[in-house]
Amino acid sequence: MADSSSSVPPPSASTSPSSVTARLLSPEQIAVKAGQTVPFLRLPDAARLYAERAARLDALADGHAIGDYLRFIARVAEAQQRLAADYPVLPLPDAAAIALAADRIEPPLPADRWPRSPLWIDGLRRLLDTLSASLPDGPARSLIAALRDAPAEHLQSQADRILNGVTLGLNLATAPLIAAALQVYWTALVAQTLAAHGAQAFGRTHAATRCPCCGSTPVASITRISAEQSGTRYLHCSLCAAQWHMVRVKCAHCESTKGIHYQELSRGEGTGGSEGVGGATASAGLSEAEIVPGNSRNAKSAAVKAECCDECGHYLKIVYMERDPSVEPVADDLATLSLDLLVTESGRQPAGANLMMWFGEEDGEGGQEGRG
């Protein structure tokens, strides 16, 4: 039988077994090794996904500078949960389409090309009815009523812009509401495709930094804790909420393992989120995290950081369950908007998007990259 541990030289006559040292693995080798033991893909549990998000948003809202908006998005998440609990059967890819996507190493439910069923618009209107009933009279309810009565052609064109990250012609005020319905639609698509075709419907794709289910950008990454694994990093899809594995200390935009460092809001700034990041404002200070090469867990103890890449100039938030088990990527990303403002002031570009918060010029030219 061949020796399976050939990477470690056998001890010589002058070397005791206790003095043999294993060769250090590079980040890429760690990724390969992790891929053999860590599940690549974690699909969302629609039965509790949005309820957990709503609870986290409400918790972060107390004393937060944008607490009212966080509470509003919490009510949106509650409406999403109600919609997800009774979602209709959707048109799905057949076995041939699944096989073709696998052959091309592409996601089977691409957000920018998938022929959306009109059922997503029915879902949007149901979501808006639920949301409106939870709000007092005021501008928000008027906005919701106007959106509910909008023609299907307008809603479809707005959806196209959202799914392609384009702000030209996008109504930034209603975009989060339309995006909320699209999130539930795609989460249902993933769940129903899984039920119809099994886990083999989804796998690794050419674009390692894009969702393997729908091809969307991540909203953030999360290091998970469980009985089976601790500190394993997953990217969290901004649309369908699938999570896919990516080794730590690796850029979620260009995949470089060089020039990676971390930034966080100064402790004690604000009163909202964990580790004092929740209520920070744009004037909060940044402190550079202390990094040991290849091990981001030696950074300081903030539950939310910006992972920055000097190679491509992009960044993506990372939330740590080992530092706060209740972190939720969408909620905690929203609650640390000040961190985005400060990191982008240094010229960095976001590598992800949060569909619950949009920036840009509705009448500007072109689109936007990264953050929603």
Question: Would you give an account of this structure?
Answer:
- The structure is a single chain.
- The chain is α+β, with helices and mostly antiparallel strands.
- The chain has two domains: 44-201, FdhE-like domain (FdhE-like fold, Alpha-Beta Complex), CATH 3.90.1670.10; 218-350, Alpha-Beta Complex (FdhE-like fold), CATH 3.90.1670.
- It is built from ten helices and nine strands.
- Strand 3 (230-237) and strand 4 form a beta hairpin.
- Helix 2 packs parallel to helix 9 (329-335), helix 5 (119-133) packs antiparallel against helix 6 (139-148) and helix 5 crosses helix 8 (175-197).
- The relative contact order is 0.14.
- Mean pLDDT is 83; it is low at 1-24, 268-299 and 364-370.
- Work out the helicity level: 25-40%
Low-confidence stretches: 1-24, 268-299, 364-370
Task: Sketch the topology as an H/E string, one letter per element.
Answer: HEHHHHHHHEEEEEEEHHE
Mean of pLDDT:
83
CATH architectural group of the largest domain? Alpha-Beta Complex
CA radius of gyration: 22 Å
* Annotated CATH topology of the largest domain: FdhE-like fold
Structural class by sheet pairing and helices: alpha+beta
- The CATH fourth-level homologous superfamily of the largest domain: FdhE-like domain
* Share of β-strand residues: 5-15%
The largest sheet, given as strand count, sense and whether it forms a barrel, is: 9 strands, mixed
Q: Using the coordinates above, name the CATH class of the largest domain.
A: Alpha Beta
Number of strands: 9
Question: Can you tell me the number of structural domains?
Answer: 2
| SS element count, helices | 10
Shape annotation = globular
Distance between the termini: 55 Å
